[in-house]
Fold each of these.
Amino acid sequence: MQTSLHILLKSTIVVASIATGVFAQAQTSWPGTSNIKVVVPFSSGGASDVLTRTLAQRLQDKIGGSWVIENKTGAGGNIGMEAVKAAAPDGTTISSATIGTLSINQFLFAKLPYDPAVDFEYVSKIWENCNAFVVSPSNPARNVKEFLDWAKQRPKGVNFGSAGVGTTPHLAGELFRVRTGIQAVHIPFRGAAQSMPALMSGETDFAIDNIASYTPLIKSGKVRALAVTCPERWPTMPEVPTMAEAGVADFVVTSWGAFVLPKGTPAAISSKLSQAITELAADPALKAKYLEIGAIIKPTTPKETADFAANERVKWREVVRISGAKLD
């Protein structure tokens, strides 16, 4: 006669076996012939969109499935993230999230329709890129120290432009103002198409903006790069010093993207996807393609990705507070 303990042990073994079987099946069968939708919460043609499309094609070739990109824009990326939150947790919907949607927006918006810390399963970082500290060619400064000396001599201080309130260039400019002690006023524009010409003409005094966007202007001499905000010098601009080398300590500002899945998606799927991204990232051709676009492909494990986003929230919460930026 079986005791209650024996029955309990058998039940536990059966449940564990079923769970193991489900995990293994998800890991081996996904994506199969499924249609995989990758939601990019930003416009087609931007850096996030191009980098995501490049990787999605490689993933389709490597692990199967039919991968399509959906640009679901609005509210600083919040609309796209909300759509992924509400999707079925079966691996058929992925968000190509960013620093903004995972680590900044919750401090900018009074009401966020998702919680980046609890509403998603983290997969992997995809890319990182750098910002460049740039000035007009007419500016007398040839390095950051000279710029700071020049800025402190101006009775009304200086100004800096960005593509809008709450963008990383805006927040980076505010952080620079605080770290260096200069008097600086933010001038928000309605996109890079306005902020870039303003810098080139000298209407604004400096910008700390996406290196991919500004590389053509830097190479053509239409703006001057005084520093980059990544931990090491940027591979395609080895002559430009880091902020630390330029004399501004503790000023690392990188933009990044990551894949996340709806909460409850089996861990086997996120693990398989993360591993596939890691393997693809070792391909020199893909590395070169990402650098050409203006980013470094930088995969991480699901746990590393979640931990990284959490650490970024600590930093950007304080930066948003300093800036006073708020969005409805």
Amino acid sequence: MPYVVSVNNDGVVAFQATLRGGGSGVYTGDGGPIRTVADSATGPFHEVCSHPDINRDGSTCFYASLKSGGRGLFLARGGEIFAVADSAGPLGPTMNEAGMIAFRVDLISGGSGIFSAGGGVISSIADTTCRFSMFHGLPVINNTGAVAFRADLRNGGQGIYVTSPTREQGSENAIVETGDIFISLGSFPTMNDAGTVAFCATLRAGGSGVFAASKGKIATVLDTSGPFESFRGVLLNNANRIVFSATPSAGALGVFAGRDPVADCLFSLDAPLLGSTVADFALNPVSINDAGQIALRVRLTDQRHFVLRADPVNSSRHQLLK
């Protein structure tokens, strides 16, 4: 704990863990033996301080605190660990199948920025020197190289933006901004390879929902006119499968794969699980793969912690986004 876990398209789950004997590292598993990707005993870092993201060839990126001080962004690939950037930011990076990484950093000059790294080149995407005042959540990079991020605007309001695959600074397009329709936007938008962006938002007219933006149009996937009273986060894959965390009316916060808060509930707070009950869970855009498998970190009321993978049931009712 406390970080989320990620899953690649082969169903391999990557997670950060603190060791009983001291130190921490990045590990992977798929239900069999646990494999060490990198740890503080052998790596050039003191402690892993973010979730890791993993792609299909097993390359894994993560933030870590440096033994010399400060923080860095690292890439583990083919049994080697490479330093990508220093002064890395909060939460964690994301990575596509080509090994390109999107990440946030705190700038030495003040403020923060969104960057991408690949092929030994670091590109600036956006920073807080101009129109943006703050970034939220984590930037998500897809397999075309486009990057989606959530930002606060210097002149007020919020927006979700996507860069062109060239990742040139200032090339970002506004996917959605607060104004007449939305009063606030969730901190963790997600994006697939087709450029569809899914996000949670609160409506100015009241209520909230899960929405999907594609080709200049915004569609409502679910909202509070149905059986849910609030929405926390949404996951989207390349098959347009949507999984979301939400609270049903008169129910508990949970993870859902469809519109029915009972039949489509994977689990919820206070629900029985593994001989105890669920006290807490965490997932974000790196926690789903194209097969619809979901990786979760779960804390139970008896204080045990689990890294779990949920495999989908093949049902047409779970295809929320057509």
Amino acid sequence: MIEISTSILTVEKDNATKTFYDLEVAGTDYYHIDVMDGKFVEKNTEKIMYEYANILKQISNIPMDVHLMVEDIKGNIDRYIPLNPNIITFHYEACKSDEEVIKFINYIKENNIKPAISIKPKTDIEKIKKFLPMLHMVLIMTVEPGKGGQKLIPETLDKVSKLKEYLEENNLDTYIEVDGGINKETIDKVKKAGIDIAVSGSGIISADNFKEAINKLK
């Protein structure tokens, strides 16, 4: 069974604490924190996501899955370290060199957090193969990062399948996560491609019954 990481991007501020509690009761495996800086992607969610992450730190033991869609990777890692997230994911495309990628991976590990890399739909998995033995997870974006509610790009599933095959051939236990357009209509396709974790936002948050929505995805 796959795990579900619920994106809290569309959670209403006035109802945030209750929503987080309801998601925990409903059985989400992670809270997915979409940190955007208005530079690497168009939208800026830095303030609200940090606020939400602080609330979650105080009220829940469900692990946080922090996804940095930012140019200032180091600054944002430093910001989230005190909140002790389970996973911090940064974008390969935001790094200036392979040496910088390795530096961030090691820095995250040194702080007892699991490191992950994300790639956009047009980035080839060949670019990140050398880092896989060092990573807890790869997040393959199945939409262009930065906006919620987009439709899954079918071609990205080929990348998932190829990555899964490569991991198995090389006996690597790196997890595969997908993010973007994941709902009850697309979940079977991404499962078949070989994922371990699915990020779903509006597909869960807009549902009348969180538990039912999460169980259907699982």
Amino acid sequence: MEKRKPIEVLAAEVIEKLKKLNYAYNTICGLRASFNRICAFARDRGDIYFSENLGKEYLKEKYGCTKDYYLESFPPKAKQAIRSIRLLGDYQLHGVIIRRIVKRKGYVKPPQFEEVLTAYEKECENNEYSIRGMRSRLQRLFFFVDYLSLRKVMAVAEITPEIISDYVISICPKHEKSIAAILTTLRVFLRFLYLNRYTDKDLSLSVPKQNKYSYPAVPSTWDPAEVKRMLDAIDRGSPRGKRDYAILILVAKLGIRAGDIKALKLSNLNWTAKTITITQKKTKVEVTYPILHDVGWALVDYLQNARPVCDVPYLFVRLNAPFEAFGENANLHNIITKYTRLAGLSVPRGKRHGLHSLRHSLASTLLEQGASLAVISDILGHVDSKSTSVYLHTDLNGLKACALDPEEVFLNA
């Protein structure tokens, strides 16, 4: 085992490594100054070597961060200090600089892994993963691949349980839910390697399991009165207002997902039967929605008085030339944000307020009106009613009705 290096030597090596990785000059200067402060702190304590405990004590004393800074909010000024601690810790443990997670377009696969990554992408496509799901899955996988490259691994056959363990240690500071997603992605990829004979052993068995269970967050919802205020705030005299009103009412009254609204085609509307039939992008299941009275008139108003004349088959299009469908990655978040502000609705800190919140509101309202989870599941297009059960937490009146009266229990005991 290699002998530990004094913290000053460790910091100097990290700086040299950052230079070789072409980090910006200003970034390196800032980190060098941060390393100097950490080294001075270590000297005052009489510590020669860097340790995780030293890093935690430094952050606690200088910035007021607890040892679980990665699970809690931390002062903005501590951001560079935290990064510096992680750089020193990662380099001492792995001998490499683990880059921060950034979204990159046009990822270039390392030559030694190009063939297997391309084969895995093809496997995902054959399994009909959604475009969004594939993008997230591959992005998480590329971080692992980058780690392998930094460790000088030249083929997937060289991956060992020790390397997997070291990688998992490197992601420990991430959020619990992020770790679960990363571990799942890693496990599936390693299983793919074994089944397709890229590796002799099933290394997916070496990926540790997460002991903690992450309970789903309680969905963010709006009161029916707030939804009405939001819809009433729309200027339905303008083409944009007509389009936006039609979009929002489809979500608020029918619970259609934003991705399915973007994919809606004119051919999906059956005016004779007064229905909308689509194949959901997320579940691949065909669902039929009724064209309710107010929904129907909103669509008619948009089609007759707002939608540009164009050959695009999609129902909703951009209102500025060239008239085309919404982009693949458009989440339509700006639409609901605009009318939330115009309606004067306050959004509490931490509350999600995208289009999906209107689906949550519909489910919550139906639950309060006595609809069963099975019915709500069908309306929202959930494949499994377990996905719908989370809305039980939003029905406070229903939960109160389930509560036991202690006095009654004692009387009947």
